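Throughout our pipeline, every protein is held as a single compact record rather than as scattered files. Such a record has a labelled line for the sequence and another for the backbone structure tokens. This encoding replaces a full spatial description with a residue-level series of whole-number codes. For reference, a complete record is included directly beneath this paragraph.
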Amino acid sequence: MSPLLPAGPAAARIADLTYVIFGLAAVVFIVVESLLLFAVLRFRRAQVSGEPKQIYGNAPLEAVWTAVPALIL
């Protein structure tokens, strides 16, 4: 017996939707992990001396990098 073995037509539609959502999530996961792996391998040998230039007090920039992820979510 399986918890995803539908017993009726509504349950079958719900199970189908579950499989579609799982498939889409798997595709997103593979894309994100591939990009992460690419970035790690591409930039692993960067020889940067010291800290990069720090950004302070740029309110519009801070608003943008706060608002964009909020809009994505």
Q: What stands out?
A: The CA atoms of residues 6 and 13 lie 8 Å apart.
